[in-house]
Amino acid sequence: MNPRTRSITTNSPTRRVLLGGLILGAALTAWPGRPTAAAERATVIPPPAEDPPAGAATTETAVIAGGCFWGVQGVFQHVKGVTSAVSGYAGGDAATANYEATGSGRTGHAESVRISYDPRQISYARLLQIYFSVAHDPTELNRQGPDVGTQYRSTIFAASPEQARIAKQYIAQIDRARVFGKPIATTVEPLKAFYPAEAYHQDFMTRNPAHPYIEANDLPKVDNLKKVFPANYRAKAVLVGSGA
């Protein structure tokens, strides 16, 4: 898939949107077997059985990948306790940590989001519950909806052995519960490095709510966050561009 093009499910003709000097195409054609945006809904899953209490740290970091980083970033920017959510690349080398190269699907990178959060307000395990429930579909292998390729894989980049342990235990717990009806495809990889994405990708959902891809694929995720996790939802997003 052209890394500048994101396909969405609708019957409207193709539109192109000029953003920050770049033309980002959105091919508005039906994706075979893909449900319409109206069918985008959360899956209610049990809370993590393993959820250690907060320690002395006042800030911690999680890096996750779940398809296009626009929507994943947008979801976590509305989560209480999150102080920053940055779109970027993880899994590959610094030389290929850019949108054009990552879009080839041959760099090892996944479009990812680095989440900084206050563990006294929200735990790593609860972030994973939101990730699995509303931020993406963890049963899809090397794709999310219309976006196909290893760069859109579902992956948790663990920054420590404890993060890896919590993530693996939660995946096993969800699989045992069979809440999705299909096995979880999410992988757990050690975090080697995170590279922030280009400026025009940051805060994309908030800056471009009328973008057809955002309307169809990502705004429903924020609605689901508000409905399924009302205690963790905040209306005002914490934005990269605001310096927050």
Question: How would you characterize this protein structure?
Answer:
- The protein is of the alpha+beta class.
- The protein has one domain (58-232): Peptide Methionine Sulfoxide Reductase, Chain A.
- Helices cover 25% and strands 20% of the residues.
- The chain has six helices and ten strands, in the order E-E-E-H-E-H-E-H-E-E-E-H-E-E-H-H.
- It has a six-stranded mixed sheet with strand order 9-8-3-5-4-10, covered by helices on one side. A two-stranded antiparallel sheet has the order 1-2.
- The longest helix is centred in the C-terminal third of the chain and has 17 residues, at 161-177.
- The radius of gyration is 17 Å and the shape is globular.
- It starts with 14 loop residues before the first strand and ends in a 16-residue tail after the last helix.
- The model is unreliable at 1-39 (pLDDT under 50).
**What would the principal axes of the Cα set say about the shape?**
globular
Low-confidence stretches: 1-39
Which fold does the CATH topology refer to? Answer: Peptide Methionine Sulfoxide Reductase, Chain A
Order of helices and strands: EEEHEHEHEEEHEEHH
**How would you classify the helix and strand content by structural class?**
alpha+beta
Q: Report the C-alpha radius of gyration, rounded.
A: 17 Å
Tell me the domain tally. 1
Give the averaged pLDDT, no decimals.
Answer: 86
Sheet of most strands: 6 strands, mixed
Q: Kindly provide the name of the CATH class.
A: Alpha Beta
Number of DSSP strands? Answer: 10
Strand content: 15-25%
Question: CATH superfamily membership, which one?
Answer: Peptide methionine sulphoxide reductase MsrA
Determine the fraction of residues in helical runs and give it as a percent range: 25-40%
The rounded distance between the terminal residues' Cα atoms is 34 Å
Physical arrangement of strands within the biggest beta sheet: 9-8-3-5-4-10
Number of helices: 6
**Name given to the CATH architecture:** 2-Layer Sandwich
